[in-house]
Amino acid sequence: MEQNISNFVEGLRTSDLAKVKSTTAQGYRPDAQPKYAILSRLGPVTDVKIDDERPLSKQTIVEAGVRHADGVSSWSFSIQDGSRILAAEMTRADVYGTRTQATSTKKDGGRSHHGYSSSGPNRTVVQSCELQPSSCNRDARLVEFFFATDRNIKITNNVSTLDTDAPRSGILSYGVAGIRIPEDHEPGQIELPSEWHFLGIDYKSATDETKHFSIKRLAATSYDDWKELVKRQADQSQNRALVFVHGFNTGFEDALYRNAQIVWDLQYQGVSVLFSWSSKGKVRDYNYDQDSADIAQAEFAELLTTLHDSGIEHIDIIVHSMGNRVVLPALDQLAQRSNPVRVRQLVMAAPDVARDKFMIQFPLARKIVDGATLYASSADKALIASAELNDFPRAGMVFATGPVLLPNLDTIDVTAIGDEILGLNHTVFATNRAVMDDIKLLLINGMKLPRLSQVRKFPEPPLASTYWKYQ
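RESULT FIELD:
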């Protein structure tokens, strides 16, 4: 418990104290914030002493003294399950120094103390990670993000349950998620426990959070609470957000993991939002997923509007596969409004949209998009299968004549990247480090092509170059 307290106080001390929000029983008090600025003068935590060594019950109050490099502080912690810090109140802080002027003065080892005591009605409370993430010690490998979904799901105790009788709700529900990235994570991969299906027997090995992606937090929220949380996060994230829209054959948990992997590998620091439409997550339900993608278009437009209304000024979108059937028509809908939301960068990976349809939809959507990038491949077996099923080529394919070319669209041929697991090559944008590096330079650094040495103009001179290609 001492270590948890040390981590909590140290995390608060090293956070941006100007943005720490303090609460009381009466609510938020801006004037209470400066009281915690004293932590910056106390210095690093060197020792923690719990006043009462009795066994901790399910939920209790623990008083503790914290020694710092340049002073001491006293705290009252609300503890759950013996170690989980729900909230903390700093009741006193004394800073060693050479000056004698202070609100209260004590002598200790020849040095004076400049003290702050929170006795009286105006006490300051710091909430734990669930309510105030910036003011507590966070797991450095925890990726926290928002989600919006039109799936008919119920979320309890960090577990989501799909209503299989009515998986498409047609109404957006909102929530927050926290996915822990394992220590052994390889860029582009989603490490999960092994699963075996043999002779009607299903087996899944236990999750080890040091080796596997794991869901640490998953909770549904009201629309108003979600919007307020986004507003708070936007203030700390330069008012920018990255929205990920998954593709065909993607269950809800799969979408959570993929979003976390992308955010972690990009080291994205803005607001992260997953839009998860009602894919059944099964290969045989391709036609069902197509209908679900079409139904979700209005909900996606609603989501972008909500983000804009919550203070997000710069929206970037990464959309994969069939998710493009959601995004492009939604952007077209928004473009027709009098004061539309704008998208800074639209990254379209392996779009599973009929090529001729894409050629019509993209220019309409482009009206509210500042920059657009298309990653295409001739080795994408999933898109080849889709083209055969639909009897029409897909926008994410590269043909003998080349990929889709349109004005104001950067097209990149990623065929040379090679096959991924199962040879589908359909999530190469996320599973290949070189592509993720290119996306990172685009979204994080704002670089234009060419961003990587292995990406070059094509065709090569003396022919006129029309698109880009990994070598």
